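User: Could you check the structure of this?
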Amino acid sequence: MTSQYYATSVEDLLDPAVMRSMSGMEYLQGMVAGKFASPPMAGTANIKLTRIEGAEAEFRGAPKFRHCNPAEVVHGGWYGTVLDSAMGCAVMTAVPKGSVYTTLEYKVNIIRPAPLEQEVICIATLTHGGRSTGIATAEIRGSESGKLFATGSTTCIIMKMA
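Assistant: Sure, the predicted structure tokens are below.
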């Protein structure tokens, strides 16, 4: 398979033991190449991991009407999902074989509403990848306009698995 696809059932996901047999970077590169399914949340948010390079992760996607709040603007949870996904992947680039990570906390700053149906790009950068913690920052911008829509920062815990 040469394009990314979304998991629609637990059977689509990579066995956790297999995932832990590779580094976070190897797993993410496999996802971009279409060897492994993207998590179902990516499909829900209408985003795709499009690039992993060095300590950066890039997602692209577009908010849809289903991502709106009652005021008919993009819900804050959509920005949080996009930022958390990208920043988590940036941290995952530093996760060694046999380890996993999870978000400890993240912060979202929404600058302006993203227009519905218009592609955005979210680039996250690892700023610290240690033995037990990873820190990353990210921005969501219009892919054509370059307008800044939201920023975020995260701290993740990195855990060695038995």
